[in-house]
Amino acid sequence: EDQVTQSPEALRLQEGESSSLNCSYTVSGLRGLFWYRQDPGKGPEFLFTLYSAGEEKEKERLKATLTKKESFLHITAPKPEDSATYLCAVQASEGGSYIPTFGRGTSLIVHP
Amino acid sequence: NAGVTQTPKFRILKIGQSMTLQCTQDMNHNYMYWYRQDPGMGLKLIYYSVGAGITDKGEVPNGYNVSRSTTEDFPLRLELAAPSQTSVYFCASSYDAGAQVHNEQFFGPGTRLTVL
Predict the structure, then answer these.
(1) Could you tell me whether strands A70-75 and A19-26 are parallel, antiparallel, or unpaired per DSSP bridges?
(2) Interface contact B56-A97, CB threshold 8 A
(3) Which of A10, A16, A81, B75 could be stapled to A107 by a disulfide with Cβ–Cβ 3.0 to 4.6 Å?
(4) Closest partner residue to A43 among B42, B96, B107, by Cβ?
């Protein structure tokens, strides 16, 4: 069974204080790992897709990395507008349905 | 493109009532999904569809039904509503070309349902 674990559950940072969110996964063949951002009262919004170990992607203050067992979402010099819940989802290449499995998310609050 | 739209945005039901949550996408995506999200619990898959006329159960299908008569629409039916179905419901869609990489999911704004 595919499993996705995100840590920490919640994270409070001061503006400018860099940190990382973790997504550990167990899957039968990785087809893709997705990061989403979810603001309160809204649906998740796509950030990145990573396909193979060693891959990295960046967008503004966010950088996502991938190994064979986990992914990190690095937040550099965060701002209050980066406050949101960040969700990780993993898609397996085996099993046939290709339906992503989501983690429970990390709630990030950035204080000014 | 409007993307993924959901109606209604809010709804209060009494125990035992039924309702249909509507979901429409205009991106010609073949995959569509229904999730429920409870506080601190992430997204749980209720049902999904890989194309018109094809649906399958997800992790938590009990108490729900779906249909997919067109590419665009994927309604979720709640029969005999129970307090345990109080949640936020999200519809999503994506495009998968089989051998190619599966693209990201696009989510609707959600429907907040309360069953009293």
Answers:
(1) antiparallel
(2) yes
(3) A10
(4) B107
How far is residue B10's CA from residue B13's CA, in Å, rounded to a whole number? 10
Mean pLDDT of B80-106: 87
Q: In this predicted structure, which of A53-57, B1-5, B44-48 has the lowest mean pLDDT? A: B1-5
pLDDT(A40) > 80? yes
Contacts of B110 in chain A (CB under 8 A): 41-43
Distance of CA B25 to the CA centre of its chain: 12
> Could you give the CA distance from residue A32 to residue A106 in angstroms, rounded to a whole number?
19
* C-alpha to C-alpha distance for B13 and B84, rounded to whole angstroms: 12
Instruction: Tabulate helix, strand, coil % of chain B (nearest 5).
Output: 5, 50, 50
Map residue A76 onto helix, strand or coil. Answer: coil
The SS3 call for residue B114 is strand
Q: Is A9 exposed, middle or buried (0-12, 13-18, 19+ CB in 10 A)?
A: exposed
Residues in chain B: 116
CA atoms within 13 A on the CB side of A27: 27
What is the sign of the dihedral through the CA atoms of B110, B20, A104 and B31?
Answer: negative
- Alpha carbons B115 and A27: distance in angstroms, whole number: 36
